[in-house]
Amino acid sequence: MQENKPVLIVGLGNPGVEYARTRHNVGFMAVTHLAGGDAAWKNQKNALVSTQNVGGRRVIFAMPQTFMNLSGDAVGPLMKFYDVPLENLVVIHDDMDLPVGATRTKIGGGSAGHNGIKSIDAAVGRDYRRIRIGIAHPRDFSLQMSPADWLLGKIPDDQMQKISAVISELKLDDLLVA
Description:
Layout lengths: L6 E5 L14 H10 L6 E3 L2 E8 L2 E8 L7 H11 L6 E7 L7 E5 L7 H10 L4 E6 L12 H5 L5 H12 L3 H4 L3
Parallel strand pairs: 1-4, 1-5, 5-7
Antiparallel strand pairs: 2-3, 3-4, 6-7
């Protein structure tokens, strides 16, 4: 991470109250937690954005309002506007390949079929930090439903407890180091 440059922390999701508490919106939930309850949000570059000074460093929190599949349409312009280098981009998103509430962090790699990641990769490249939050796959619960229906489904209370617990463990200071 370039210490003299801003950090952009993006939570992926879909805008609108109908998508609140859906599996695809765990990125929004995480970035809202990280920004804090007193964060002031404004519309900018196809995203809800809150900027803060954290230990002398500018941190930009963002929730693209472009819908998941077009997340890069918000992330690319935000990076350019705030002069954020690729290594200072952190994207938090759902992952069906991880059990509910599990997390993994990696830099770069493929999209694993995640359309929001595909869009960001196409807009800015692949070598940024990703924090993946597990939402499991419907087959893990012996459910016969499409992945799209699973992603846009409301999170049941027992799963929400696990997801909320792992989100509450995310610490901003940990995201601001290389």
